[in-house]
Amino acid sequence: MKPDPVAIAIQTALLLLIAPLISGCIKNWKAKLQTRRGPRIWQPYFDLAKFLRKDMVISEHASWIFSAAPYVIFLSSLLAGLMVPMVVAQAPLSLYGGVLGVIGLLALGRFFLALGGLDPASAFGGMGSSREMTIAAIAEPAMMLAIFTVAITAGSTDLSQIVHSSGGPLWKLLDPTHVMAFAALFIVLLAESCRIPVDNPATHLELTMIHEAMLLEYSGRYLAFMEWGAAIKQVVLLTLLANVFFPIGIAQDTSFPMLAVGSAAYLLKLLALAAAVVLVETTNAKLRLFRVPDLLSASFVLATLALMSTFLFH
Amino acid sequence: MNNASPADLGAQLITLMAALMLVTQLLLAVQKMLLTSIRLFAIQSLLLAGIAAIVAYFHNASHVYIVALLTIVGKVLFLPWLLDRQVRRVRIVQEIEPLLNAPTSMLICGGLTLLGYVVARPFTTLDRLGNNTLAVAVTLLLTGFFLMFNRRKAISQVLALLTVENGVMLAAVALTTYGMPLVVELGIFFDVMVAVMVLGILVYRIRDTFASMDVSKLSQLKG
Amino acid sequence: MDNPCSTFLHLSLLLYVVGAVAGLLFLGRPRLANLFSFGFATVAALCQGLSCLMALVGGTAATNASARLIPSMVPYVEFTVRQDPLGAFFGIIVSLLGLALSIYSLGYARGFYGRKNVGVLGSFFNVLLLSTTLVFLADNAFFFLMTWEVMALSAYCLVSYEHEQEETRKAGVLYFIMSHIGTGCLILGFLLLFQSSGSYSFASFHALGNTMEPAHRNAVFLVFLIGFGVKAGIVPLHIWLPAAHPVAPSNVSALMSGVLIKTGIYGLTRVFFDFLGTPPNWWGVTVLAIGTISAVLGVLYALMEHDLKRLLAYHSIENIGIILMGLGAALMFLHTGHPTLAGLALIAGLYHTINHAVFKALLFLGAGAVLHSTHTRNMEEMGGLIKRMPWTAFFFLIGAIAISALPPLNGFVSEWLTYQSLLQGFGTTESLIRLMFPLSGAMLALTGALAAACFVKAFGITFLAQPRSQHAAHAHEAAPTMLLGQGILTVTCVFLGLFPTVFLRVLYPVTEQLLGPNLGWDLSRANGLVLQTTADHGGTISTLGMVLMAVCLLPIPAVLWVFFGRGTKVRIGPTWDCGQRGLTPQMEYTATGFSKPIRMIFKALFRPRREVQREYDFSPYFATNIRFEAHVEEVFQTRIYRPLNRLVLRASRRMRALQAGSIQAYLIYIFITLLVLLLFAL
After folding, report:
1. Where are the domains of chain B?
2. What is the dihedral of CA B126, B128, B130, B134, to 10 degrees?
3. How far away is chain B from the Cα of C612, in angstroms, using its nearest Cα?
4. Which residues in chain B are closer than 8 Å to A308, comparing Cβ atoms?
5. Are strands C570-573 and C609-616 parallel, antiparallel or unpaired?
6. Contact A308 B18 (CB under 8 A)
7. Which residues of C touch A94 (CB under 8 A)?
8. Are the Cβ atoms of A297 and B117 closer than 8 angstroms?
9. What pLDDT does B2 receive?
10. Residues of A in contact with C530 (CB under 8 A)
11. d(Cα C107, Cα C365) in Å, to the nearest integer?
């Protein structure tokens, strides 16, 4: 299981290319559900290219933290992505970290994102940082409990091992532990990728922003890396959900037919989960900040139920 | 489906449906909109009917099919329609603040689930399809009672009582030999129907007299 | 013990004594007192560190015998020391921190020239380091208690160093009282152990618990838990920590948070794993529960603070909780007969001990430098310091990342080990108790995330954005020795984070001593690059690998920059201010505002109160003066300690009746006692 440079290169490229596509799909489908035309699904690629080509304006109060944050977010999301199995059951970097490594790296990115929001001395950035860290803190126990449940059934926090042990007869997917852990993690996914009902990614009102508020002062290539990093983080979480709970079609080795089936299955699962996110976003309204703990404590109770189901029903 | 015997599939489906019944009960514990609560109750009863149908299928007990059918007609269609109509007539669609707030209620329900498991443990050695649902049944009973005193609007309390009855029926369907005798089932069923209809009328009267469905106002009836 | 280890050890003890004396000798000449006392402390710490490291890595620690320091005339009291693996491990912590802090103090003490007596500071500093070293080495219960007392007293003197302020005096007295409550429990505990073993030497206490009766054993467990728990700062015995640590001089705060509370952990480890044999289940459950509660409450109260040092003090409580989670899990595994897992949990707890010592001391040193420059501990008056104190800011950032358990630093590694041991705990037993493991894991995740939130606040409000006061605007970088001290600790943090497998070689002898040899599993893999757990196909982690991989991925943004962004310019402009004439520091986010969402979410715990008073001339909309006060209830003070105080005072007042003041009354008391004793002897 030593890291294979070819696998690393391929998975990196895959992450970089798929992330904007998923963002674009979600935006486009959300618009279609609201009977609008919406932007084309390739739009985020053009946006990123545009940002990379533009000049930057940096606040006079900002320090090197402001400049370092985009790179930390970008690289930590990529690293986390390399530890998650996408097409093949064996993630390229699985030796260097499992699910705990993924969570830790995403937390590191979030730390610098929040600092980058405070750096320019803007009140909006400070507010965004405060809310983001609070929501992340409330979401962590639910996420950790759901992951513990999954890891306990699999006997390890190594993601390849978890994916391997989720396999078996299809009707095993109906196991209550599985279903409830998936529901709990889905709610956490909504919180972590800043989707309604936790945060509105399309708002223009600064007082309702959480993630967007921390990005307000960024422009040019810094903004490109921030947006890309956030998109990659979203794909990492979606991939985690897809492959841990529905490991159908994942390639067990690197033979060509398995790879083909694996890639197709992966893309389909990703798009299906994105569609679920779109559905949830369109049918719900954004919650008040002080109602978000209610949602996340529901997620925590679901995760606890999932844990108890491991012995409740046997 | 590979390597799955039908009985395994049945057991898995029953387990899943019992778990989902538990989830709907928890959602009921924190739900504020009365109309949504009624829908959740309808879903829970539908799941119960499903469990009954599966038990009937695997044990070839046709009278349990009748139980399933009665559940669908009565608890999924008729009672929710009746309560819905009631809610719309009094035009009060939201529950007021319950006794304990949402996270505390959820934690207490979690604790009651654990208690249900502990109570049900001695019975899980029985070799029957669906024997692992006793824990859920006891939990539904306990959480239903908890909901009855946590809520203040009469309609929510009626719904809580109905979920208690769901729990009892789940225990009956899943544990006793081929379900209880049909007569007993029918008796309980009509009992509950009449109770709900009477309560429905009473609710309307309460609201007429006190201009509110808050049951704590009933204490004004004291001399 | 006649090998280089013992030579270095004796040398270091001697040098501490010399340093203490030197500090007192040069009482009137601050520069010389500073140089000599802290200079000797530095060298002494270095010698001690070398000694302990050699003992552990060289393997001599396992077989060291007791050595007598000074002959004693009193029976039962032996001045014996023994450098066994556990003591040597904690000795490394003391020496590392002693080294860095002494170097830091050389620059820090300059702030006291002319105001206070630097010689006293230096002298007591040396005494504190000496007594702490002896606490870890002591091999006799009486000697242990003596050095424990000296440590507590010298710490009290250092805490009350700036006794001109009333806050400091009260904090010192509170610390003194709590410390003695703990010492009282310790005396009781050692007496109970003596009852079973007949001697006061630690060697005779080894595995004593297996031969004691259950009631006796449980009493010993509880008494030592309270006694060492007070020192460690577990909830609810922690109230002295947030009072005493902030008011002490910063090098002393760092030493207290880094080393003194670890003496509590040392004591707990020694008693639970060396003295008390195989534990019943409820011991482990209790320790795990106390650890979880301390961790969560510690970090929640830390979030509410805007005094930088009080915030750090509450974080110490949180981290002690995390260490106790590891120790509690180890106790539970010992009970269910899983020595390998117990070893994993113990390693997790001990690794977190040294990690916490290092990064907490680093943070306190940074806070000290900031305090030195801005003359305030209040975060709401700081800001913009990253431009004025760049190195201090960088070191503080490393400390903040480490304490928030973020990869690739050391906090992440020890929390990873703790998670792994909790995870595998679920499968060790069939009873419902096993639910505690995942729930504790979830609470650990909560504390980690809340700690990250707290340090975003602490670092962001203190160092980033614009300065909020004149003092902050005119701050200057710290003295070079202060930077050097912080630098040493930073390098250690990074080393402990990136090379855990190397450091594990120091921990293996400790687990071997406490849990028996041959744990049967090597936690390191791929030539030390990767850390693994004790299960088949278990999880693996490699912080070094992550860093190397990140370096390999760096070309990607670089290439994108060159390919797309060649020729783009960077302009410096004002922050978006909604079209107004410019942002003032008052428009920035405040520390109190930052933690408001947490305050609201947990308001059942905090019971926040706020008061707004307006003064106005003709209309309330045009206030001339607005006063805002926000309070968070100190739950432990009002619910536990004040009622306890009142109870004790009431009882004492009743007892006062006994002191009638007349000689006859006292003679009657003596006579009655004599009669009772005679009757009893019959």
Report:
1. 6-217
2. -30
3. 28
4. 113-114, 117
5. unpaired
6. no
7. 540
8. no
9. 43
10. 95-96
11. 11
List beta partners, residue C570: A56
Is the confidence at residue B219, as pLDDT, over 70? no
Cβ(C570)–Cβ(A66) under 8 Å?
Answer: no
Rounded average pLDDT over C64-92: 80
Q: What is the mean pLDDT of residues C243-251?
A: 92
Token pair belonging to A160: 């390849």
- A-C Cβ pairs (cutoff 8 Å, strict): 272
DSSP letter (8 states) at residue C468 = S
Share of chain B above pLDDT 90, in %: 7
Helix (H, G, I), strand (E, B) or coil at C590: coil
Q: Using one digit for the tens of pLDDT, what is the confidence trace for C126-137? A: 999 999 999 998
Global ipTM: 0.95
The model's pLDDT over C607-661, given as tens digits with 9 standing for 90+, comes to 888 888 888 888 878 888 888 888 888 888 888 888 999 999 999 988 887 777 7
Nearest alpha-carbon partner for C217 in C207, C229, C225, C209: C209
C588: Cβ–Cβ under 8 A, 6 or more apart, which residues? A121, A122, A123, A126, C383, C465, C466, C468
- Residues from chain B that touch C435, judged by Cβ atoms under 8 A, are 114
Longest dimension (CA), chain B: 70
Inform me whether the C-beta atom of residue B118 falls under 8 Å from chain C C-beta atoms. Answer: yes
Whether C573 and A125 lie within 8 Å, measured CB to CB? no
Q: What's the gap in Å between the CA of A191 and the closest CA on chain B? A: 18
C436 to chain B nearest CA, in Å? 13
Measured CA to CA, the distance from residue C544 to residue A183 in angstroms comes to 34
d(CA B168, CA C496): 58
Where residue B178 falls among pLDDT bands split at 50, 70, 90? low
Domains of chain C: which residue ranges? 278-555, 587-631, 636-681
Strand partners, C628: C612
Q: Say which of B8, B18, B103 has its CB closest to residue A297.
A: B103
The interface residues of chain B toward chain A in range 21-40, judged by CB-CB distance below 8 A, are 22-23, 26-27, 30
Cα–Cα distances in angstroms (integers) from residue C527 to residues A1, A79, C501, C616, in the given order: 14, 22, 9, 73
Contacts of A148 in chain C (CB under 8 A): 423, 426, 438, 441-442
B contact residues 97-116, partner C, Cβ 8 Å cutoff = 114
Indicate which of A55, A95, A159, A309 best probes the interface with C, i.e. most C CBs within 10 Å of its own CB.
A95
Query: Beta-carbon neighbour count of residue C593 at 10 Å?
Result: 17
Q: Verify cis geometry, omega within 30 degrees of 0, for the bond prior to A141.
A: no
Q: How far apart are CA C621 and CA C324, in angstroms?
A: 53
| Contact: A290, C439; criterion CB under 8 Å | no
A179 interfaces chain B, CB cutoff of 8 Å: yes
Give tens-digit pLDDT for C128-164: 999 999 999 888 888 999 999 999 999 999 999 988 8
Q: In chain C, which residues have their Cβ closer than 8 Å to the Cβ of A293?
A: 601
* Res B24 pLDDT > 50: yes
Give the domain extent around A105.
Answer: 5-312
C408 prior amide bond cis, ω within 30: yes
Interface of A with B in 248-307 (CB under 8 A): 293-294, 297-298, 301-302, 304-305
Q: What is the DSSP string of C298-350?
A: HHHHHHT--BHHHHHHHHHHHHHHHHHHHHHHHHHHHHHT-HHHHHHHHHHHH
Q: Greater confidence, B183 or C232?
A: C232
Q: Give me the helix-helix angle, C308-336 and C281-303, nearest 10°.
A: 160
For residue B71, what pLDDT is reported? 85
Does C499 have pLDDT greater than 50? yes
Residues of C in contact with B118 (CB under 8 A): 432
Placement of tokens 């003041």 in the chain: C661
pLDDT beyond 50 at B1: no
- By residue count, chain B amounts to 223
